[in-house]
């Protein structure tokens, strides 16, 4: 089973591939202090919906990078349908391996894929280099609502070890020199809808494609993930989108920090 096919099938009914409602997606986009003609980068852009909405609202230009050929194809199709081919481009590839000019974007985003740079802190450091002075960085990150249970740790050992609180996610950004402008937190309804749509999509795909050799493995895996969510994840894992602003310049920031110690 191709893992990107699995995610493509199980997210067939999602506008965005994370537990953020459409209303909250529009909220964070409306709060971006962007000027017309801003240049935007979206790492792990998925279906491209967030980037396309930003491009439409702010008359911006954007580049989306995603490793899944299924999502890149879908995103470029969406751009064409909305007559945004000349404003938004989606490229298949590893976001960490792209060669972008430093300090060339007004906004850089990575929602739910900080593994690209080894975690939340690594993603912040990577995106800091790509945004202009006073540029915006938008991150989507999980956080822990409580300490993971032994069962959770057994089934998701790497994630369990890496989880920090909502406040600590903010603090990591602030310690890296960023200023928090806003954060949007998903609630249980957002999570239940996100996970429920994944299960529904897998069930219907299996019913409609009985001869597809991947149908049963996709369904079995998604049923297992949904069961894990209900039993262990629902009261353990949170999700938030963080809107940060980079300082005017890191040289200025270092000089300011030095003066505080004189």
Can you characterise this structure?
It is built from eleven helices and seven strands. The protein has helices at 3-10, 22-30, 49-58, 69-81, 120-128, 150-155, 157-162, 166-175, 188-208, 215-233, 250-260, and strands at residues 39-43, 61-66, 88-92, 105-111, 131-144, 179-185, 237-245. Strands 3-2-1-4-5-7-6 form a seven-stranded mixed beta sheet, with helices on both faces. The longest helix has 21 residues, at 188-208. The model is unreliable at 251-262 (pLDDT under 50).
Protein topology:
Elements: H1 3-10, H2 22-30, E1 39-43, H3 49-58, E2 61-66, H4 69-81, E3 88-92, E4 105-111, H5 120-128, E5 131-144, H6 150-155, H7 157-162, H8 166-175, E6 179-185, H9 188-208, H10 215-233, E7 237-245, H11 250-260
Parallel strand pairs: 1-2, 1-4, 2-3, 4-5
Antiparallel strand pairs: 5-7, 6-7
Helix pairs in contact: 2-3, 9-10
């Amino acid at each position: 089973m191709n893992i990107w096919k699995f995610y493509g099938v199980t997210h067939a009914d999602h506008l965005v591939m994370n537990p953020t409602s459409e209303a909250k997606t529009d909220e964070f986009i409306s709060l971006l202090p962007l000027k017309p003609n801003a240049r935007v980068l979206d790492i792990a852009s998925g279906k491209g919906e967030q980037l396309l909405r930003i491009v439409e609202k702010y008359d911006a230009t954007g580049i989306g990078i995603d490793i899944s050929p299924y999502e890149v194809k879908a995103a470029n199709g969406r751009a064409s349908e909305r007559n945004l081919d000349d404003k938004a481009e989606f490229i298949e590839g590893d976001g960490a391996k792209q060669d972008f000019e430093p300090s060339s974007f007004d906004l850089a985003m990575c929602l739910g894929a900080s593994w690209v740079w080894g975690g939340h802190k690594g993603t912040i450091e990577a995106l800091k280099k790509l945004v202009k002075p006073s540029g915006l960085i938008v991150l989507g990150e999980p956080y822990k609502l409580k300490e993971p249970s032994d069962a959770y740790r057994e089934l998701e050992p790497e994630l369990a070890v890496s989880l920090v609180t909502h406040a600590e996610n903010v603090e990591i950004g602030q310690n890296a020199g960023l200023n928090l402008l806003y954060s949007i937190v998903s609630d249980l309804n957002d999570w239940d809808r996100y996970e429920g749509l994944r299960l529904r999509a897998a069930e219907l795909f299996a019913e409609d494609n009985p001869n597809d050799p991947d149908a049963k493995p996709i369904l079995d895996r998604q049923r297992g993930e949904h069961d894990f969510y209900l039993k262990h994840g629902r009261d353990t894992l949170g999700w938030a989108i963080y809107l940060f602003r980079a300082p005017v310049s890191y040289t200025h920031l270092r000089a300011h920090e030095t003066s505080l110690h004189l």
